[in-house]
Every structure is written in C-alpha cells, then in structure tokens.
Amino acid sequence: MRGNRLVPSHDLVRAFFGLPLPEAHRAALDPFLARCGALAPEFRWTPAANLHLTVRFLGQVETVLAEGIADRVGAAAPASFEVRLGDLGTFKRGRLARVVWLGLRAGGEDAGALAELVEAECVRAGLEPERRRFNAHLTLARARSRDGSQLPALPDPPDLPSWSVSELILYRSRPGRGGSVYEPLRRVSLR
C-alpha cells in the first residue's frame, strides 16, 4: 500500500464514490434485507456487504482520472458529518417500483454538499455532468424487470443510531456471478 492507495492502478476501472456504512449497521440490516427478499423476490436485494450511500457514479474511466478526482476532492474535503438512516422509499415508473431505498433522517444536506464538490471535480475532469439531481439514499434493491415490479408491503427497517461520516471512498465495481463486488481504491478523509 502506498499513501492512501489501496489497490494497484490499472488502465480502466468501473468506479463510483460512496459513503460507507458502519459494520454494525450492515449487520443489523442483513436480516431485514433477507426478510424483504423473501417477501419481494421480484427484486435483487443488495447484499449487506455492498451497502453504501452512492455520491457519484463515474462509469468506466481511466484509473488515473478517477484518482485525480479523489485527490482534488481530498484537498477540498469538507468536515465530517452525522448521518442517520430514515424511511423506506422507492423510485418508480408509473405504479411499478424500480428501486427500493432508505432515505436519510439526518445528514442529507451535508451529503448533498459533498456530492456537489465531487460533481464539480468530475465535470472539471471532463466527465459528463450528472443529469439527475442528487438524492441521498441507501439503495436496498432493484427490480429484476427494467420496467419495475409491484412492491408488496415490507417490514419497517431497523431504527439505527446516527454515525459520523469521516471518509469518502472511491470504489471499484467488479461484476461477478453473484452480483457486483465493491472494493475500495482510495479513501478520502473528511476533516
């Protein structure tokens, strides 16, 4: 490991910036996700190990470009902030749910300010601007059908304590047979 680089640099990488969840939160959400998966098999439920709050998806980019963005974000990184998960929500197409997520009860504005900084650095690096407005959320599931699916009533998510977000992670996404595997490329400390 050299500096804050966790994975050797390669030419191209499928990458995104995200905020990690504490391990205790992942462990508490794991049985909840299993119950939801049994109730709504028409959705691909995120494994607890992959849970994170996406700040900006980069797509397939040169590793040096992604790391340059991480360096510039790190130089201007804001202070750490508190986050608390909130209620279940969905992104829909008509009456069909396409994505199931947990919103934020606290920390949404701070996460939005961080997303603005990352977005500005992505555009500065030559990436296309994000077309959608940032909406801080934790993705729990995606419909197997592109058009979405009916979502049955789900149990209430566990009420988890807030935590301090002290780092932004540049993740590599590797597709696999059981779904994507996310591995940290760089950790950007928040002051």
Give descriptors for this structure.
single chain, 191 residues, alpha+beta, Cyclic Phosphodiesterase, Chain: A, five-stranded antiparallel β-sheet, four-stranded antiparallel β-sheet, 3 helices, 9 strands, 38% strand
Give your account of this protein's structure.
There is one protein chain. By secondary structure, this protein is an alpha+beta fold. The protein has helices spanning 23-39, 63-75, 108-124, and strands at 12-20, 43-45, 52-62, 81-93, 96-106, 138-143, 163-165, 167-174, 181-189. The strands form 2 sheets. A 5-stranded antiparallel sheet has the order 2-6-5-4-7, with helices on both faces. A 4-stranded antiparallel sheet has the order 3-1-8-9, with helices on one face. The chain contains 3 helices and 9 strands. It has a single domain (12-189), classed as Alpha-Beta Complex (Cyclic Phosphodiesterase, Chain: A), CATH 3.90.1140.10.
Kindly summarize this structure in a few lines:
The chain is an alpha+beta fold and 191 residues long. The chain has helices at 23-39, 63-75, 108-124; strands at residues 12-20, 43-45, 52-62, 81-93, 96-106, 138-143, 163-165, 167-174, 181-189.
Please bin the fraction of helical residues.
Answer: 10-25%
User: How many separate domains make up the residues?
Assistant: 1
Q: What is the topology, as strand order, of the major beta sheet? A: 2-6-5-4-7
According to DSSP, the number of beta strands is 9
The geometry reads as globular
Oligomer: single chain
- The low-pLDDT segments are none
Sketch the major β-sheet: 5 strands, antiparallel
Structural class category = alpha+beta
Task: Write the H/E string, N to C.
Answer: EHEEHEEHEEEE
Kindly, what is the distance between the CA atoms of the first and last residues, rounded to a whole number of angstroms? 22 Å
Q: Give the CATH level 1 class.
A: Alpha Beta
CATH topology: Cyclic Phosphodiesterase, Chain: A
